[in-house]
Amino acid sequence: MSEAPKIPVVDLSSEDRLSTANSIRQACLDHGFFYLVNHGVQEELLKNVFEQSKKFFSLPVEEKIKLAVKNNRGYKGMYDEKLDTSLNAQGDSKESLDMGPLEEDHLNQWPSEEDLPSWRSTMEAYYKKMLSTGTKLISLIALALNLDEDFFQKLGALHEPVTYLRLLRYPGDADSSREGVYGASAHTDYAIITLLLTDGVPGLQICRDKYKQPQVWEDVPSISGAFIVNIGDTMERWTNCLFRSTMHRVLPPVQERYSVAFFINPNKDCVIECLESCCSESSPPRFPPIRSLDYLEESLRRT
Q1: Cβ contact 45:53 at 8 Å
Q2: SS3 track for 205-239
Q3: Could you count the other beta carbons within 10 Å of the beta carbon of residue 2?
Q4: pLDDT, tens digit (0-9, with 9 covering 90-100), for 130-184
Q5: 214 upstream amide cis, omega within 30 of 0
Q6: Mean pLDDT, all residues of the chain
Q7: How far is it, in rounded angstroms, from Cα 222 to Cα 199?
Q8: Percentage above 90 pLDDT, the chain
Q9: Which DSSP string do the residues of 91-130 spell out, in sequence order?
Q10: Buried b (16+ CB within 10 A) or exposed e, 119-157
Q11: Which of 12, 24, 35, 135 has the lowest CB atom count within 10 Å?
């Protein structure tokens, strides 16, 4: 395993918002990743989410595939997804369940209350808390970009944002040396930001310079109760590559590993174009404007 990078820790409860914003800015410039602590999501809820996730993935395969993915929501089985499409491997060694915005709940697929009582209410409670936490964090990211803290709200990006909650299970795999097989192969996220909760089992790695060859991968240790936050492609595009979305992957863990990812994308009709604070005559916009939903659908098609 590689040496772990010294990823910054950001305290969401700090009253010194400018200092926190400066810490976020430095973290986004140097790593594209940081830990988020004192985030306000209760420890009991975090514990319940993992318990309910394990209950779902423990169901027989024939029960899980009743929720097979439709409209980017639902269950994906082992090797159904390959995040790095350049690999020859059959797919990533993981299974997942995705839930989308609660405002579009008719599209979400839920296990039956009979099979998993209180499962849906736990996930809905977690979703709402994560959306609130993510919104607070994005206000600080606005400050980090020398913008008003309500900039993204006024832009409409956070009015009914396209958010996804993804439960993940990686089976324990002692044979992690198989060429081209990963728990999650190398990729960047499409979102504004991703907030990741892990169960402490190692496996996550980041590559800070995705354009450098050979790539250098560094382990990301878990901090109990903390979220691991990473910048996504949408924020990279908004900031004209000032804040880069960092490539990451998950190695096949030696023991079973669970994690929970929360992806925040802008409102469907929000236009993603270079922020004024991130371009100049010497650094003109690198990307043309694009509607958020068009960008998301284009990105999803690639995997």
Answers
A1: no
A2: EEECCCCCCCCCCEECCCCCCCEEEEECHHHHHHC
A3: 10
A4: 999 999 999 999 999 999 999 999 999 999 999 999 999 999 865 555 667 889 8
A5: yes
A6: 92
A7: 8
A8: 75
A9: --S-EEEEE--GGGGGG-----TTTSTTHHHHHHHHHHHH
A10: bbebbbbbbebbbebbeebbbbbbbbbebebebbeebeb
A11: 135
Q: Dihedral sign for Cα 189, 194, 199, 202, please.
A: positive
What is the token pair recorded at 44?
């009991």
Nearest to 7 by CA among 229, 184, 263, 214: 229
Phi, psi of 233, deg, nearest 5: -60, -35
**Tokens standing for residue 150:** 């309500």
Whether the CB-CB separation of 57 and 66 falls below 8 Å is answered with no
Residue 97 has pLDDT above 50, yes or no: yes
The tokens describing 115, both together, are 């099979």
